């Protein structure tokens, strides 16, 4: 084993060592460097960066749907902590369109409700919501105690639908389901597929129409993508789910193509829409100048229309001309610097492309809750063995709906794939990293410290839980989840914002003035994870 990998593992007890060893790989070194264990339970007692199933369902996938009310069925803390912290922006698309994103709705379950049951309280809460806000769709998101006391949120949803003639979805997305947020993504996808997608009949008017899947409009990223797509001439039917709406999601099956940004959180819907409605899906990445141009060119190739190809090239040229000077300036400041990126899912991969635009290398990276396919590529899926935790999450199967046909035959799709159009597929992060670089799944605070010590990255991208601890050590850290209240970072203009923020962070002299306490005080010695 390499010295660097040893450093992460040698303080662990033998039990913890054995577990963590398979989640850590140093690329192109050691046995099976391209293989990694992922999507398994975190070790109790270890400070993982992960969140819960409710966070994945409520916070990530259904929370951003602006014209729908999301009610947290559970104690107030769950609703409060998931209120606005993710920075998924939304605004009405036309005058009078409802936008409930700034609100937080909760049943505020107390001890007596836990004893006597909370269904009544939930229904009363929904009656109040209907009276005050009259939404067309309500998502009920359960937190941990709901599953334990057995409230039937699906039955409540059916009663609400009958009473008010709206769409209501009861989600059993209790925090403890699965092993991370990832279970919540899957559960949320299933509900949207069952009860929302396909309900509308409004066909797109444009010649070429798309949905953007797995784009949550953090810091306005989705708006920048829509701006570029509309400039080229695409019609954006719906966005799942950043600044998205029930009114548009229900028509999404009528679009020509699904663009998939964050595959981790939404690949289930992409696959099911292909099976049921024949809509192909294309893995795109609008993070990075090179990546954005590549994605736009793949789209033009897919539609295979000379006019569209010409317009695509014109727009890319115009956009590049607009940002060129700024990009060159920030590149001169950032070139040669190194980064670590540790985020939940696809961003740890996506942002490596943007960093490369500035001449920066990502030497250490990892995901909180991704699956092996996010590391190793989608082709690995048949080899992944389902365990008890993943079997616990419902897989729904769909069939081709009457009247829907594939746009291209399998042969034609093969030709497109050979031409580099990444249809129904995504590659893994490991393939885009270099020999010697380290990849760590479900990283924890101890490993974060060790990685920084050994690799000494100039900047460490992560989240709220570890950012300040890292900065106390004198290392620059920026939040890759919330963008530290900045953004957008997507597309052409977003790349400039990112370069500006990085330059500001790296060139402040504060970091050299920080003296972490452990540099002057002796540290505790011991073994992590109990006696060997
Ligand atoms: Fe996808 Fe996301 Fe991410 Fe994600 Fe998340 Fe997020 Fe993330 Mo935080 S959907 S996997 S569950 S890109 S909330 S917008 S930043 S961990 S890397
Ligand atoms: C979540 C949301 C989160 C948390 C961010 C962080 C987000 O996982 O529930 O830990 O800094 O992006 O807001 O990922």
TrEMBL record:
Q: Which UniProt keywords apply?
A: ATP-binding, Iron, Iron-sulfur, Metal-binding, Nitrogen fixation, Nucleotide-binding, Oxidoreductase
Q: Which PANTHER family match?
A: NITROGENASE MOLYBDENUM-IRON PROTEIN ALPHA CHAIN
Write out the GO MF terms: ATP binding; iron-sulfur cluster binding; metal ion binding; nitrogenase activity
Q: Which parts of the sequence belong to the Nitrogenase/oxidoreductase component domain? A: 52-505
Write down the InterPro entries for this protein, in alphabetical order.
Nase/OxRdtase_comp1 (IPR000510), Nase_comp1_asu (IPR010143), Nase_comp1_CS (IPR000318)
Q: What is its EC number?
A: 1.18.6.1
Catalytic function, reaction form:
N2 + 8 reduced [2Fe-2S]-[ferredoxin] + 16 ATP + 16 H2O = H2 + 8 oxidized [2Fe-2S]-[ferredoxin] + 2 NH4(+) + 16 ADP + 16 phosphate + 6 H(+)
Gene source species = Lacrimispora amygdalina
Required co-factors: [8Fe-7S] cluster
Record-given protein name: Nitrogenase protein alpha chain
> Of which family is this protein a member?
Belongs to the NifD/NifK/NifE/NifN family.
Gene3D superfamilies for the chain: Nitrogenase MoFe cofactor biosynthesis protein NifE, C-terminal, Nitrogenase molybdenum iron protein domain
**Oxidoreductase is among the record's keywords:** yes
Q: NCBIfam families in the record, alphabetically?
A: N2-ase-Ialpha
């Amino acid at each position: 084993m390499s010295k660097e990998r040893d450093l992460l593992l040698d303080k662990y007890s033998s039990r913890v060592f054995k577990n963590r060893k398979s989640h850590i790989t140093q690329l192109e070194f050691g046995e099976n460097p391209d293989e990694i264990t992922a999507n398994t339970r975190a070790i109790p007692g270890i400070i993982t960066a992960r969140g819960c199933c409710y966070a994945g369902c409520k916070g990530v996938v259904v929370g951003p749907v602006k014209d729908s009310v999301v009610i947290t069925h559970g104690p107030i803390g769950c609703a409060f902590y998931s209120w606005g912290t993710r920075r998924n922006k939304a605004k009405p698309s036309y005058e009078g369109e409802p936008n409930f994103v700034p609100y937080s709705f909760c049943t505020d379950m107390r001890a007596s409700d836990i004893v006597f049951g909370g269904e009544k309280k939930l229904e009363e809460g929904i009656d109040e919501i209907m009276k005050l806000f009259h939404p067309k769709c309500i998502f009920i998101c359960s937190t941990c105690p709901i599953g334990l006391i057995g409230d039937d949120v699906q039955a409540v949803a059916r009663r609400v639908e009958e009473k008010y003639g709206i769409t209501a979805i009861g989600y059993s997305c209790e925090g403890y389901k699965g092993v991370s947020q990832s279970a919540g993504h899957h559960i949320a996808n299933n509900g949207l597929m069952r009860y929302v997608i396909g309900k509308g009949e409004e066909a797109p008017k444009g010649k070429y129409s798309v949905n953007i899947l797995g784009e949550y409009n953090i810091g306005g990223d989705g708006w920048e993508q829509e701006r570029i797509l509309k400039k080229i001439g695409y019609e954006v039917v719906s966005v799942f789910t950043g600044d998205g709406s029930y009114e548009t999601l229900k028509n999404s099956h009528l679009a020509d193509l699904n663009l998939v940004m964050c595959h981790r959180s939404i690949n289930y819907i992409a696959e099911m829409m292909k099976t049921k409605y024949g809509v192909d899906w294309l893995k795109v990445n609008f993070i990075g100048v090179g990546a954005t141009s590549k994605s736009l060119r793949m789209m033009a190739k897919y539609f295979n229309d000379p006019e569209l190809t010409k317009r695509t090239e014109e727009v890319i040229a115009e956009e590049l001309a607009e940002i060129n000077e700024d990009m060159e300036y920030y590149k001169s400041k950032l070139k040669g610097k190194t980064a670590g990126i540790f985020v939940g899912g696809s961003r740890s991969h996506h942002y490596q492309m943007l960093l490369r635009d500035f001449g920066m290398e990502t030497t250490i990276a990892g995901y909180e809750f991704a699956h092996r396919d996010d590391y190793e590529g989608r082709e690995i899926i048949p080899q992944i063995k389902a365990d008890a935790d993943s079997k616990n999450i419902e897989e729904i199967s769909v069939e081709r709906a009457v009247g829907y046909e594939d746009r291209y035959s399998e042969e034609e799709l093969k030709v497109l794939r050979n031409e580099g159009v990444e249809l129904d597929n995504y590659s893994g992060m490991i393939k885009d990293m270099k020999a010697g670089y380290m990849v760590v799944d479900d990283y924890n605070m101890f490993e974060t410290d060790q990685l920084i010590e050994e690799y000494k990255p100039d900047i460490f991208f992560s989240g709220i839980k570890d950012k300040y601890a890292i900065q106390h050590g004198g290392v620059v850290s920026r939040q890759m989840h919330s963008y530290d209240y900045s953004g957008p970072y997507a597309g052409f203009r977003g790349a400039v914002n990112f370069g500006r923020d990085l330059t500001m962070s790296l060139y402040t002299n504060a970091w050299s003035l920080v003296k972490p306490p452990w540099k002057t005080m002796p540290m505790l010695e011991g073994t992590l994870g109990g006696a060997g």
